[in-house]
Amino acid sequence: MSDPHQPEIDVKYVAHLARMHLSDDEAEVFQEQLEHILEHVRQLSDLDVSGVEPTAHAVPVHNVFREDAVDASLPHEQAMDNAPQSRQGLFVVPRILE
Amino acid sequence: MAKFADHNETFSLAGLQQGTFSSVEWVTDLLQRIERSDKTINAYISTDGEWALEQAKAADQRRASGEAGPLCGAPIGVKDVLNVQGQPCHCASRILEGYTSPYDATAVSRLRDQGAVLLGRLNMDEFAMGSTNENSAFGAVRNPWNPDFVPGGSSGGSAAAVAAGSAWAALGTDTGGSIRQPASFCGRVGLKPSYGRVSRFGLTAFASSLDQIGPITQTVSDAATLLTALAGHDAKDSTSLKQAVPDYSSALKGDLRGMRLGLPKQYFIEGMDQEVEAAVRQATEQCRELGAELVEVSLPHTEYAIATYYIIATAEASANLARFDGVRYGAREAGSDPLDQYGKTRAAFFGPEVKRRIILGTYVLSSGYHDAYYLRAQQVRTLIRRDFEDAFKQCDALLTPVAPTTAYRIGERTADPIQMYLGDIFTVTANLAGICGLSVPCGFSSADLPIGLQILGPAFGEETILRVGHAYEQSTDWHVRRPPLWAGTAS
After folding, report:
1. CB neighbours of residue A66 within 10 Å
2. Are B195 and A55 an interchain contact pair (Cβ–Cβ within 8 Å)?
Protein backbone atom coordinates (compact mmCIF):
# COMPACT_ATOMS: atom_id res chain seq x y z
CA MET A 1 0.00 0.00 0.00
CA SER A 2 2.91 2.33 0.68
CA ASP A 3 6.67 2.57 0.49
CA PRO A 4 8.05 1.33 3.81
CA HIS A 5 10.80 3.97 3.72
CA GLN A 6 8.34 6.78 3.22
CA PRO A 7 6.08 7.17 6.24
CA GLU A 8 2.51 7.41 5.07
CA ILE A 9 1.30 9.59 7.91
CA ASP A 10 2.72 13.00 8.77
CA VAL A 11 1.59 13.36 12.35
CA LYS A 12 2.32 17.05 12.65
CA TYR A 13 0.31 17.85 9.54
CA VAL A 14 -2.65 15.72 10.65
CA ALA A 15 -2.57 17.32 14.12
CA HIS A 16 -2.78 20.67 12.37
CA LEU A 17 -5.91 19.47 10.53
CA ALA A 18 -7.33 18.54 13.95
CA ARG A 19 -6.49 22.02 15.30
CA MET A 20 -4.26 20.58 17.97
CA HIS A 21 -0.67 21.70 18.61
CA LEU A 22 1.87 18.94 19.34
CA SER A 23 5.27 19.25 20.97
CA ASP A 24 8.23 17.73 19.10
CA ASP A 25 8.46 14.97 21.71
CA GLU A 26 4.78 14.09 21.37
CA ALA A 27 5.03 14.13 17.57
CA GLU A 28 7.97 11.73 17.65
CA VAL A 29 6.19 9.22 19.92
CA PHE A 30 2.87 9.44 18.04
CA GLN A 31 4.61 9.14 14.66
CA GLU A 32 6.09 5.78 15.63
CA GLN A 33 2.95 4.51 17.38
CA LEU A 34 0.60 5.55 14.60
CA GLU A 35 2.79 4.00 11.90
CA HIS A 36 2.60 0.78 13.87
CA ILE A 37 -1.20 1.07 14.24
CA LEU A 38 -1.65 1.82 10.52
CA GLU A 39 0.49 -1.19 9.68
CA HIS A 40 -1.97 -3.29 11.67
CA VAL A 41 -5.16 -1.80 10.22
CA ARG A 42 -3.83 -2.26 6.68
CA GLN A 43 -4.84 -5.92 6.98
CA LEU A 44 -8.30 -4.76 5.86
CA SER A 45 -6.91 -4.42 2.34
CA ASP A 46 -6.62 -8.24 2.23
CA LEU A 47 -10.40 -8.48 2.06
CA ASP A 48 -12.46 -8.28 -1.09
CA VAL A 49 -15.18 -5.76 -0.31
CA SER A 50 -16.31 -5.05 -3.86
CA GLY A 51 -20.07 -4.63 -3.96
CA VAL A 52 -20.39 -4.60 -0.15
CA GLU A 53 -22.57 -1.77 1.14
CA PRO A 54 -20.92 0.26 3.90
CA THR A 55 -22.56 0.25 7.36
CA ALA A 56 -22.70 3.71 8.93
CA HIS A 57 -24.74 2.57 11.92
CA ALA A 58 -26.53 -0.61 12.88
CA VAL A 59 -30.15 0.47 13.35
CA PRO A 60 -32.79 0.32 10.64
CA VAL A 61 -33.87 3.97 10.82
CA HIS A 62 -33.18 6.80 8.41
CA ASN A 63 -34.22 10.43 8.28
CA VAL A 64 -36.06 10.76 11.56
CA PHE A 65 -38.25 13.83 11.46
CA ARG A 66 -40.38 15.52 14.09
CA GLU A 67 -43.16 18.06 13.79
CA ASP A 68 -41.75 21.43 12.78
CA ALA A 69 -42.99 23.06 15.97
CA VAL A 70 -41.34 25.30 18.55
CA ASP A 71 -40.41 23.36 21.65
CA ALA A 72 -38.72 24.23 24.94
CA SER A 73 -34.94 24.47 24.71
CA LEU A 74 -32.07 25.39 26.98
CA PRO A 75 -32.44 29.04 28.06
CA HIS A 76 -29.80 31.32 26.58
CA GLU A 77 -28.25 32.29 29.94
CA GLN A 78 -27.87 28.66 30.95
CA ALA A 79 -26.21 27.83 27.67
CA MET A 80 -23.71 30.62 28.35
CA ASP A 81 -23.05 29.64 31.96
CA ASN A 82 -20.12 27.39 31.12
CA ALA A 83 -18.36 29.82 28.79
CA PRO A 84 -14.73 30.50 29.73
CA GLN A 85 -15.37 34.12 28.71
CA SER A 86 -18.57 35.85 27.65
CA ARG A 87 -19.92 39.34 27.25
CA GLN A 88 -23.45 40.58 26.51
CA GLY A 89 -24.67 37.03 26.01
CA LEU A 90 -21.95 36.22 23.47
CA PHE A 91 -18.85 34.01 23.58
CA VAL A 92 -15.64 36.04 23.60
CA VAL A 93 -12.83 34.80 21.34
CA PRO A 94 -9.59 36.45 20.15
CA ARG A 95 -9.97 38.99 17.35
CA ILE A 96 -10.22 37.42 13.88
CA LEU A 97 -10.25 40.50 11.64
CA GLU A 98 -7.94 43.46 12.11
CA MET B 1 -24.01 1.14 61.27
CA ALA B 2 -24.43 -2.37 62.63
CA LYS B 3 -27.10 -3.49 60.21
CA PHE B 4 -24.63 -3.06 57.35
CA ALA B 5 -21.74 -4.75 59.14
CA ASP B 6 -22.01 -7.81 57.01
CA HIS B 7 -23.23 -6.12 53.83
CA ASN B 8 -23.55 -9.50 52.08
CA GLU B 9 -27.07 -10.15 53.25
CA THR B 10 -28.27 -6.58 53.06
CA PHE B 11 -26.69 -5.30 49.86
CA SER B 12 -29.80 -5.57 47.78
CA LEU B 13 -32.97 -3.70 46.96
CA ALA B 14 -34.93 -6.29 48.93
CA GLY B 15 -33.73 -4.66 52.15
CA LEU B 16 -35.21 -1.33 51.03
CA GLN B 17 -38.40 -2.90 49.78
CA GLN B 18 -38.95 -4.91 52.97
CA GLY B 19 -38.10 -1.97 55.19
CA THR B 20 -35.02 -3.61 56.75
CA PHE B 21 -33.28 -0.29 56.24
CA SER B 22 -34.09 3.10 54.76
CA SER B 23 -32.43 4.75 51.81
CA VAL B 24 -31.02 7.42 54.14
CA GLU B 25 -29.41 4.72 56.29
CA TRP B 26 -28.01 2.94 53.24
CA VAL B 27 -26.67 6.10 51.62
CA THR B 28 -25.14 7.31 54.91
CA ASP B 29 -23.33 4.01 55.19
CA LEU B 30 -22.23 4.05 51.55
CA LEU B 31 -20.78 7.55 51.76
CA GLN B 32 -18.51 6.33 54.56
CA ARG B 33 -17.59 3.22 52.60
CA ILE B 34 -16.72 5.31 49.55
CA GLU B 35 -14.37 7.42 51.63
CA ARG B 36 -12.61 4.34 52.98
CA SER B 37 -12.40 2.25 49.83
CA ASP B 38 -11.49 5.15 47.55
CA LYS B 39 -8.21 5.63 49.41
CA THR B 40 -7.20 2.46 47.59
CA ILE B 41 -9.30 2.15 44.45
CA ASN B 42 -10.05 5.78 43.44
CA ALA B 43 -13.39 4.81 41.87
CA TYR B 44 -15.13 8.16 42.34
CA ILE B 45 -14.03 11.48 40.88
CA SER B 46 -16.42 13.27 43.22
CA THR B 47 -19.41 12.67 45.45
CA ASP B 48 -22.10 15.09 46.55
CA GLY B 49 -23.05 13.62 49.93
CA GLU B 50 -25.43 16.33 50.95
CA TRP B 51 -27.40 16.03 47.73
CA ALA B 52 -27.32 12.22 47.90
CA LEU B 53 -28.89 12.34 51.37
CA GLU B 54 -31.55 14.80 50.18
CA GLN B 55 -32.46 12.40 47.37
CA ALA B 56 -32.50 9.48 49.83
CA LYS B 57 -34.80 11.36 52.18
CA ALA B 58 -37.19 12.13 49.33
CA ALA B 59 -37.09 8.49 48.27
CA ASP B 60 -37.90 7.27 51.77
CA GLN B 61 -40.89 9.63 51.88
CA ARG B 62 -42.06 8.41 48.51
CA ARG B 63 -41.77 4.79 49.65
CA ALA B 64 -43.68 5.60 52.83
CA SER B 65 -46.49 7.06 50.70
CA GLY B 66 -46.73 3.72 48.89
CA GLU B 67 -45.87 5.01 45.42
CA ALA B 68 -42.45 3.51 45.05
CA GLY B 69 -41.12 1.47 42.13
CA PRO B 70 -38.29 -1.03 42.51
CA LEU B 71 -35.53 1.57 42.15
CA CYS B 72 -36.87 4.05 44.70
CA GLY B 73 -34.00 4.82 47.11
CA ALA B 74 -31.46 2.69 45.25
CA PRO B 75 -27.95 4.20 45.48
CA ILE B 76 -26.33 4.40 42.06
CA GLY B 77 -23.05 5.82 40.77
CA VAL B 78 -22.84 7.51 37.37
CA LYS B 79 -19.91 7.39 34.99
CA ASP B 80 -18.39 10.83 34.54
CA VAL B 81 -19.38 10.93 30.86
CA LEU B 82 -23.14 11.32 31.57
CA ASN B 83 -24.68 14.70 32.32
CA VAL B 84 -26.45 15.19 35.64
CA GLN B 85 -27.95 18.64 36.04
CA GLY B 86 -25.99 20.85 38.44
CA GLN B 87 -23.11 18.38 38.75
CA PRO B 88 -19.68 18.46 37.08
CA CYS B 89 -19.15 16.27 34.00
CA HIS B 90 -15.42 16.09 33.34
CA CYS B 91 -15.30 12.95 31.20
CA ALA B 92 -12.14 12.40 33.29
CA SER B 93 -10.47 15.11 31.20
CA ARG B 94 -8.86 18.38 32.16
CA ILE B 95 -10.48 20.01 29.14
CA LEU B 96 -13.86 20.07 30.95
CA GLU B 97 -12.48 21.72 34.07
CA GLY B 98 -15.13 23.93 35.64
CA TYR B 99 -18.01 22.55 33.54
CA THR B 100 -21.40 22.10 35.21
CA SER B 101 -24.11 20.16 33.40
CA PRO B 102 -27.14 22.28 32.49
CA TYR B 103 -29.41 19.24 32.02
CA ASP B 104 -29.84 15.54 32.79
CA ALA B 105 -29.00 12.78 30.34
CA THR B 106 -32.19 10.85 29.54
CA ALA B 107 -30.78 7.70 31.17
CA VAL B 108 -30.16 9.74 34.31
CA SER B 109 -33.56 11.43 34.36
CA ARG B 110 -35.26 8.03 33.96
CA LEU B 111 -33.49 6.77 37.09
CA ARG B 112 -34.26 9.98 38.98
CA ASP B 113 -37.93 9.73 38.01
CA GLN B 114 -37.99 6.34 39.72
CA GLY B 115 -36.44 7.76 42.88
CA ALA B 116 -32.93 6.35 42.46
CA VAL B 117 -30.26 8.15 44.50
CA LEU B 118 -27.22 9.43 42.59
CA LEU B 119 -24.12 9.10 44.75
CA GLY B 120 -21.44 10.68 42.62
CA ARG B 121 -19.28 10.78 39.52
CA LEU B 122 -17.40 7.63 38.66
CA ASN B 123 -13.86 7.64 37.31
CA MET B 124 -13.20 6.43 33.76
CA ASP B 125 -10.68 6.60 30.94
CA GLU B 126 -10.62 10.11 29.50
CA PHE B 127 -13.59 10.46 27.11
CA ALA B 128 -14.09 6.69 27.50
CA MET B 129 -10.92 6.00 25.52
CA GLY B 130 -9.05 3.13 27.10
CA SER B 131 -9.30 -0.39 28.41
CA THR B 132 -7.63 -0.02 31.82
CA ASN B 133 -8.81 3.23 33.41
CA GLU B 134 -5.21 4.42 33.46
CA ASN B 135 -6.02 7.32 31.07
CA SER B 136 -7.78 9.52 33.61
CA ALA B 137 -6.87 13.08 34.55
CA PHE B 138 -8.08 12.08 38.02
CA GLY B 139 -5.66 9.18 38.45
CA ALA B 140 -5.87 5.48 37.70
CA VAL B 141 -8.59 3.31 39.25
CA ARG B 142 -7.43 0.12 40.95
CA ASN B 143 -9.01 -3.30 40.99
CA PRO B 144 -10.71 -4.15 44.31
CA TRP B 145 -9.58 -7.78 43.94
CA ASN B 146 -5.96 -6.67 43.89
CA PRO B 147 -4.91 -3.02 43.73
CA ASP B 148 -1.77 -3.85 41.70
CA PHE B 149 -4.10 -4.63 38.80
CA VAL B 150 -6.33 -2.47 36.60
CA PRO B 151 -10.13 -2.62 36.92
CA GLY B 152 -10.49 -2.55 33.14
CA GLY B 153 -11.97 0.31 31.19
CA SER B 154 -13.25 2.58 30.20
CA SER B 155 -16.00 2.24 32.86
CA GLY B 156 -13.37 1.19 35.41
CA GLY B 157 -14.70 3.36 38.24
CA SER B 158 -18.22 1.99 37.71
CA ALA B 159 -17.05 -1.62 37.90
CA ALA B 160 -14.65 -1.05 40.79
CA ALA B 161 -17.30 0.76 42.86
CA VAL B 162 -19.86 -2.00 42.36
CA ALA B 163 -17.26 -4.70 43.11
CA ALA B 164 -16.04 -2.91 46.24
CA GLY B 165 -19.57 -2.33 47.51
CA SER B 166 -19.34 1.45 47.28
CA ALA B 167 -22.46 1.62 45.07
CA TRP B 168 -25.42 -0.71 44.70
CA ALA B 169 -25.10 -0.39 40.92
CA ALA B 170 -23.54 1.98 38.40
CA LEU B 171 -24.14 3.35 34.95
CA GLY B 172 -21.40 2.81 32.43
CA THR B 173 -21.05 3.25 28.69
CA ASP B 174 -19.82 0.73 26.16
CA THR B 175 -18.30 1.72 22.81
CA GLY B 176 -16.07 -1.33 22.29
CA GLY B 177 -16.45 -3.28 25.54
CA SER B 178 -16.24 -0.51 28.14
CA ILE B 179 -19.04 -1.98 30.28
CA ARG B 180 -18.46 -5.70 29.74
CA GLN B 181 -14.67 -5.81 30.09
CA PRO B 182 -14.37 -3.89 33.40
CA ALA B 183 -17.35 -5.83 34.78
CA SER B 184 -15.45 -9.00 33.88
CA PHE B 185 -12.13 -7.78 35.33
CA CYS B 186 -13.93 -6.84 38.58
CA GLY B 187 -16.12 -9.96 38.83
CA ARG B 188 -19.47 -8.24 38.34
CA VAL B 189 -22.32 -8.18 35.81
CA GLY B 190 -22.18 -5.75 32.88
CA LEU B 191 -24.88 -5.24 30.23
CA LYS B 192 -24.36 -3.51 26.90
CA PRO B 193 -27.80 -3.02 25.40
CA SER B 194 -28.40 -3.20 21.67
CA TYR B 195 -27.70 -0.01 19.75
CA GLY B 196 -30.89 2.05 19.88
CA ARG B 197 -32.28 0.43 23.06
CA VAL B 198 -31.22 3.23 25.47
CA SER B 199 -31.22 6.93 24.62
CA ARG B 200 -27.78 8.49 24.30
CA PHE B 201 -29.05 12.02 24.93
CA GLY B 202 -26.78 13.69 27.48
CA LEU B 203 -24.00 11.16 26.98
CA THR B 204 -20.85 12.97 25.87
CA ALA B 205 -20.29 11.22 22.56
CA PHE B 206 -17.13 9.25 21.82
CA ALA B 207 -18.23 7.22 18.76
CA SER B 208 -21.88 7.93 18.06
CA SER B 209 -22.61 4.82 15.99
CA LEU B 210 -21.15 2.51 18.66
CA ASP B 211 -21.87 4.08 22.08
CA GLN B 212 -24.53 2.62 24.38
CA ILE B 213 -25.33 3.27 28.05
CA GLY B 214 -25.88 0.30 30.35
CA PRO B 215 -25.67 -0.94 33.94
CA ILE B 216 -22.92 -2.62 35.94
CA THR B 217 -24.48 -4.56 38.80
CA GLN B 218 -24.06 -7.23 41.49
CA THR B 219 -26.47 -9.63 39.77
CA VAL B 220 -28.21 -10.29 36.46
CA SER B 221 -31.52 -9.57 38.15
CA ASP B 222 -30.33 -6.07 39.10
CA ALA B 223 -29.24 -5.50 35.49
CA ALA B 224 -32.73 -6.48 34.29
CA THR B 225 -34.37 -4.09 36.75
CA LEU B 226 -32.16 -1.23 35.58
CA LEU B 227 -32.59 -1.96 31.87
CA THR B 228 -36.36 -1.88 32.28
CA ALA B 229 -35.99 1.65 33.65
CA LEU B 230 -33.38 2.84 31.13
CA ALA B 231 -34.74 1.46 27.86
CA GLY B 232 -37.13 3.07 25.45
CA HIS B 233 -37.59 5.64 22.75
CA ASP B 234 -36.56 9.24 23.38
CA ALA B 235 -37.39 12.04 20.97
CA LYS B 236 -34.05 13.63 21.90
CA ASP B 237 -32.08 10.72 20.39
CA SER B 238 -33.15 9.93 16.84
CA THR B 239 -31.28 6.61 16.96
CA SER B 240 -33.29 5.33 19.93
CA LEU B 241 -35.87 2.92 18.58
CA LYS B 242 -39.61 2.77 19.23
CA GLN B 243 -39.66 -0.92 20.13
CA ALA B 244 -41.79 -1.67 23.19
CA VAL B 245 -39.93 -2.13 26.47
CA PRO B 246 -40.74 -5.44 28.18
CA ASP B 247 -40.36 -6.00 31.90
CA TYR B 248 -36.93 -7.59 31.63
CA SER B 249 -37.21 -9.04 35.14
CA SER B 250 -40.01 -11.32 33.99
CA ALA B 251 -37.62 -12.89 31.46
CA LEU B 252 -35.52 -14.32 34.30
CA LYS B 253 -37.13 -17.67 34.67
CA GLY B 254 -36.66 -21.27 33.82
CA ASP B 255 -33.65 -23.31 32.90
CA LEU B 256 -32.10 -23.41 29.45
CA ARG B 257 -34.02 -26.33 27.99
CA GLY B 258 -34.86 -25.78 24.35
CA MET B 259 -32.19 -23.12 23.86
CA ARG B 260 -29.38 -23.38 21.37
CA LEU B 261 -26.19 -21.60 22.39
CA GLY B 262 -23.44 -21.03 19.85
CA LEU B 263 -19.71 -21.22 20.51
CA PRO B 264 -17.92 -19.12 17.88
CA LYS B 265 -14.69 -20.92 17.11
CA GLN B 266 -12.84 -17.64 16.46
CA TYR B 267 -13.38 -16.68 20.12
CA PHE B 268 -11.46 -19.65 21.47
CA ILE B 269 -8.06 -18.97 20.02
CA GLU B 270 -4.47 -19.97 20.52
CA GLY B 271 -2.57 -17.59 22.71
CA MET B 272 -5.45 -16.80 25.02
CA ASP B 273 -4.98 -17.26 28.73
CA GLN B 274 -5.42 -20.97 29.55
CA GLU B 275 -7.24 -20.27 32.79
CA VAL B 276 -9.70 -17.98 31.02
CA GLU B 277 -10.36 -20.57 28.33
CA ALA B 278 -10.83 -23.32 30.92
CA ALA B 279 -13.26 -21.25 33.02
CA VAL B 280 -15.33 -20.22 30.00
CA ARG B 281 -15.43 -23.79 28.65
CA GLN B 282 -16.56 -24.94 32.08
CA ALA B 283 -19.31 -22.30 32.01
CA THR B 284 -20.50 -23.51 28.61
CA GLU B 285 -20.68 -27.06 30.00
CA GLN B 286 -22.71 -25.73 32.90
CA CYS B 287 -25.16 -24.20 30.40
CA ARG B 288 -25.41 -27.59 28.71
CA GLU B 289 -26.25 -29.19 32.05
CA LEU B 290 -28.94 -26.55 32.47
CA GLY B 291 -30.54 -27.88 29.32
CA ALA B 292 -29.04 -25.84 26.49
CA GLU B 293 -27.81 -27.42 23.30
CA LEU B 294 -24.33 -26.22 22.35
CA VAL B 295 -23.45 -25.70 18.69
CA GLU B 296 -20.22 -24.55 17.11
CA VAL B 297 -20.64 -21.50 14.88
CA SER B 298 -18.29 -19.38 12.82
CA LEU B 299 -17.82 -15.61 12.75
CA PRO B 300 -15.23 -15.57 9.96
CA HIS B 301 -14.42 -11.84 9.96
CA THR B 302 -13.53 -11.64 13.66
CA GLU B 303 -9.83 -11.17 12.94
CA TYR B 304 -10.62 -7.90 11.15
CA ALA B 305 -12.70 -6.46 13.97
CA ILE B 306 -9.98 -4.58 15.87
CA ALA B 307 -8.75 -2.78 12.75
CA THR B 308 -12.33 -1.98 11.71
CA TYR B 309 -13.23 -0.76 15.17
CA TYR B 310 -10.20 1.48 15.66
CA ILE B 311 -10.78 3.15 12.29
CA ILE B 312 -14.51 3.78 12.80
CA ALA B 313 -14.31 4.70 16.49
CA THR B 314 -11.44 7.15 16.05
CA ALA B 315 -12.98 8.70 12.94
CA GLU B 316 -16.19 9.42 14.83
CA ALA B 317 -14.24 10.58 17.88
CA SER B 318 -12.20 13.05 15.85
CA ALA B 319 -15.46 14.69 14.73
CA ASN B 320 -17.19 14.50 18.13
CA LEU B 321 -14.24 15.93 20.04
CA ALA B 322 -13.88 18.89 17.69
CA ARG B 323 -16.34 20.67 19.97
CA PHE B 324 -13.74 20.94 22.74
CA ASP B 325 -11.98 24.09 21.65
CA GLY B 326 -12.15 26.37 24.68
CA VAL B 327 -14.90 28.60 23.26
CA ARG B 328 -18.19 27.48 24.80
CA TYR B 329 -17.23 25.44 27.85
CA GLY B 330 -14.37 23.97 29.78
CA ALA B 331 -10.76 25.02 30.02
CA ARG B 332 -9.15 27.56 27.71
CA GLU B 333 -5.52 28.31 26.92
CA ALA B 334 -5.16 31.84 25.54
CA GLY B 335 -3.92 32.17 21.95
CA SER B 336 -3.12 35.00 19.56
CA ASP B 337 -6.08 34.19 17.28
CA PRO B 338 -8.90 31.61 17.34
CA LEU B 339 -6.89 28.91 15.52
CA ASP B 340 -3.95 29.37 17.86
CA GLN B 341 -6.33 29.25 20.81
CA TYR B 342 -7.94 25.98 19.67
CA GLY B 343 -4.51 24.45 19.06
CA LYS B 344 -3.14 25.50 22.44
CA THR B 345 -6.28 24.58 24.39
CA ARG B 346 -6.46 21.09 22.88
CA ALA B 347 -2.70 20.61 23.32
CA ALA B 348 -2.80 21.66 26.96
CA PHE B 349 -5.88 19.79 28.20
CA PHE B 350 -6.30 16.53 26.23
CA GLY B 351 -4.35 13.50 27.48
CA PRO B 352 -2.10 11.40 25.22
CA GLU B 353 -4.56 8.59 24.35
CA VAL B 354 -7.20 11.12 23.31
CA LYS B 355 -4.69 12.99 21.17
CA ARG B 356 -3.50 9.76 19.55
CA ARG B 357 -7.06 8.79 18.64
CA ILE B 358 -7.98 12.25 17.36
CA ILE B 359 -4.94 12.15 15.06
CA LEU B 360 -5.72 8.63 13.82
CA GLY B 361 -9.39 9.52 13.27
CA THR B 362 -8.55 12.74 11.47
CA TYR B 363 -6.11 10.87 9.27
CA VAL B 364 -8.49 8.09 8.19
CA LEU B 365 -11.06 10.72 7.21
CA SER B 366 -8.60 12.99 5.43
CA SER B 367 -8.57 13.61 1.73
CA GLY B 368 -6.88 10.78 -0.15
CA TYR B 369 -7.19 8.25 2.67
CA HIS B 370 -10.95 8.24 3.36
CA ASP B 371 -11.81 5.46 0.92
CA ALA B 372 -8.82 3.26 1.75
CA TYR B 373 -9.47 3.37 5.47
CA TYR B 374 -12.84 4.72 6.60
CA LEU B 375 -15.04 3.55 3.73
CA ARG B 376 -13.34 0.15 3.67
CA ALA B 377 -13.81 -0.20 7.43
CA GLN B 378 -17.52 0.54 7.02
CA GLN B 379 -17.72 -2.18 4.37
CA VAL B 380 -15.95 -4.68 6.62
CA ARG B 381 -18.39 -3.64 9.35
CA THR B 382 -21.15 -4.93 7.07
CA LEU B 383 -19.34 -8.28 6.77
CA ILE B 384 -19.04 -8.49 10.57
CA ARG B 385 -22.76 -7.74 10.96
CA ARG B 386 -23.61 -10.45 8.45
CA ASP B 387 -21.44 -12.94 10.35
CA PHE B 388 -23.69 -12.40 13.37
CA GLU B 389 -26.90 -12.52 11.34
CA ASP B 390 -25.83 -15.90 10.00
CA ALA B 391 -24.79 -17.15 13.44
CA PHE B 392 -28.11 -16.16 15.01
CA LYS B 393 -29.93 -18.26 12.40
CA GLN B 394 -28.29 -21.27 14.05
CA CYS B 395 -28.62 -20.36 17.72
CA ASP B 396 -30.39 -18.10 20.23
CA ALA B 397 -27.27 -16.59 21.79
CA LEU B 398 -23.49 -16.95 21.73
CA LEU B 399 -21.16 -17.84 24.60
CA THR B 400 -17.62 -16.43 24.55
CA PRO B 401 -14.94 -15.09 26.86
CA VAL B 402 -15.24 -11.34 27.58
CA ALA B 403 -11.49 -10.86 27.15
CA PRO B 404 -8.55 -13.13 26.29
CA THR B 405 -6.95 -12.52 29.71
CA THR B 406 -7.76 -11.48 33.26
CA ALA B 407 -6.97 -7.92 34.44
CA TYR B 408 -3.57 -6.51 33.48
CA ARG B 409 -1.02 -5.34 35.98
CA ILE B 410 -1.02 -1.54 36.34
CA GLY B 411 1.33 -0.12 33.69
CA GLU B 412 1.69 -3.43 31.86
CA ARG B 413 0.14 -2.34 28.55
CA THR B 414 0.50 1.43 28.54
CA ALA B 415 3.63 1.56 26.39
CA ASP B 416 2.21 -0.22 23.34
CA PRO B 417 -1.21 0.94 22.13
CA ILE B 418 -1.60 -2.02 19.74
CA GLN B 419 -1.22 -4.56 22.55
CA MET B 420 -3.81 -2.62 24.52
CA TYR B 421 -6.23 -2.51 21.57
CA LEU B 422 -5.91 -6.24 20.82
CA GLY B 423 -7.30 -7.05 24.27
CA ASP B 424 -10.68 -5.74 23.03
CA ILE B 425 -11.03 -8.41 20.33
CA PHE B 426 -14.02 -10.24 21.84
CA THR B 427 -16.05 -7.15 22.73
CA VAL B 428 -15.74 -4.66 19.85
CA THR B 429 -17.71 -6.89 17.48
CA ALA B 430 -20.99 -6.43 19.38
CA ASN B 431 -20.73 -2.65 19.01
CA LEU B 432 -19.90 -2.88 15.31
CA ALA B 433 -22.90 -5.17 14.76
CA GLY B 434 -25.24 -3.23 17.09
CA ILE B 435 -26.16 -6.36 19.07
CA CYS B 436 -26.44 -6.80 22.85
CA GLY B 437 -23.97 -8.42 25.23
CA LEU B 438 -23.84 -9.44 28.86
CA SER B 439 -20.80 -10.14 31.01
CA VAL B 440 -21.30 -12.56 33.91
CA PRO B 441 -18.66 -13.79 36.39
CA CYS B 442 -17.59 -17.38 35.64
CA GLY B 443 -14.51 -18.08 37.74
CA PHE B 444 -11.18 -16.92 39.08
CA SER B 445 -7.59 -17.31 37.99
CA SER B 446 -4.95 -18.85 40.23
CA ALA B 447 -3.97 -15.25 41.09
CA ASP B 448 -7.54 -14.74 42.35
CA LEU B 449 -8.57 -12.40 39.56
CA PRO B 450 -12.10 -12.68 38.15
CA ILE B 451 -12.94 -14.20 34.76
CA GLY B 452 -16.05 -13.27 32.77
CA LEU B 453 -18.39 -15.14 30.45
CA GLN B 454 -19.84 -13.08 27.60
CA ILE B 455 -23.34 -13.85 26.34
CA LEU B 456 -24.12 -12.18 23.01
CA GLY B 457 -27.64 -11.90 21.65
CA PRO B 458 -29.17 -10.50 18.48
CA ALA B 459 -30.29 -6.85 18.32
CA PHE B 460 -33.10 -6.36 20.86
CA GLY B 461 -32.50 -9.86 22.21
CA GLU B 462 -31.86 -8.64 25.77
CA GLU B 463 -34.50 -10.94 27.26
CA THR B 464 -32.66 -13.95 25.88
CA ILE B 465 -29.21 -13.03 27.17
CA LEU B 466 -30.57 -12.00 30.57
CA ARG B 467 -32.38 -15.32 30.87
CA VAL B 468 -29.23 -17.27 29.97
CA GLY B 469 -27.10 -15.12 32.29
CA HIS B 470 -29.52 -15.48 35.18
CA ALA B 471 -29.88 -19.24 34.81
CA TYR B 472 -26.10 -19.65 34.69
CA GLU B 473 -25.48 -17.23 37.56
CA GLN B 474 -28.03 -18.88 39.84
CA SER B 475 -26.39 -22.26 39.28
CA THR B 476 -22.97 -20.95 40.46
CA ASP B 477 -21.73 -18.84 43.34
CA TRP B 478 -19.13 -16.68 41.55
CA HIS B 479 -21.32 -13.61 41.88
CA VAL B 480 -21.55 -13.80 45.68
CA ARG B 481 -17.80 -13.85 46.20
CA ARG B 482 -16.50 -10.56 47.55
CA PRO B 483 -13.10 -8.98 46.98
CA PRO B 484 -10.72 -8.39 49.91
CA LEU B 485 -11.58 -4.72 49.58
CA TRP B 486 -15.32 -5.30 49.89
CA ALA B 487 -16.81 -2.18 51.40
CA GLY B 488 -13.44 -0.70 52.21
CA THR B 489 -12.45 -3.14 54.90
CA ALA B 490 -9.12 -4.22 53.45
CA SER B 491 -7.55 -7.06 55.36
Report:
1. 8
2. no
Chain A from 74 to 93: CB within 8 A of any B CB: 74, 78-79, 81-85, 91, 93
| Contact: B355, A20; criterion CB under 8 Å | yes
State the pLDDT at residue B3: 59
pLDDT for A4 equals 47
CATH number 3.40.50.450 given to B2-300+385-488: no
Closest-CA residue of B relative to A28 is B356
The confidence score (pLDDT) of residue A57 equals 87
Where do the domains of chain A lie, and which CATH numbers do they carry? 1-45 (1.10.20)
- Helix axes of B156-164 and B23-41: crossing angle, nearest 10 degrees: 120
- Tell how strand B397-401 and strand B260-264 pair up: parallel
Report the range of poorest mean pLDDT among B9-23, B101-115, B256-270: B9-23
Query: Which whole-number Å values give the CA distances from A11 to B122, B306, B313, in the listed order?
Result: 33, 22, 19
- Which pLDDT tens digits describe chain A residue by residue (98 residues)? 444 445 689 999 999 999 999 999 999 999 999 999 999 999 999 999 999 999 998 887 888 888 899 988 899 999 999 999 999 999 999 998 87
Judge whether A73 is closer than 8 Å to chain B, CB to CB. Answer: no
- Neighbour order of strands in the sheet with B397-401: B44-47, B117-122, B75-79, B169-174, B212-217, B189-192, B436-444, B450-457, B397-401, B260-264, B293-297
Comparison of pLDDT for B118 and B15, the residue scoring more = B118
Q: How far is A95 from chain B (nearest CA, A)?
A: 6
B7–chain A nearest CA distance, Å: 41
**Greatest pairwise CA separation for chain B in angstroms:** 69
For the stretch B105-151, pLDDT in tens is: 999 999 999 999 999 999 999 999 999 999 999 999 999 999 999 99
What are the catalytic residues of B? 79, 154, 178
Nearest CA in chain A to B419: A37
Beta strand segments in B4-122, E: 44-47, 75-79, 117-122
Pairwise CB contact (< 8 Å): B382 & A96: no
Measured torsion, CA atoms of residues B1, B182, B443, B441, in degrees rounded to the nearest 10:
70
Instruction: Please report the pLDDT score of residue A42 as a whole number.
Output: 94
State the Cα–Cα distance between residues A89 and A42, nearest whole angstrom.
48
pLDDT at B288 over 90: yes
Q: Do B329 and A82 touch (CB under 8 A)?
A: yes
Q: Is B310 close to A41, i.e. CB distance below 8 A? A: yes
**Residue B64, pLDDT score:** 95
Q: Which of B386, B200, B196, B168 is nearest to A62 (CA)?
A: B196
What is the rounded distance in angstroms from the CA atom of residue B175 to the CA atom of residue B211?
4
Q: Is the peptide bond before B154 cis (omega within 30 degrees of 0)?
A: yes
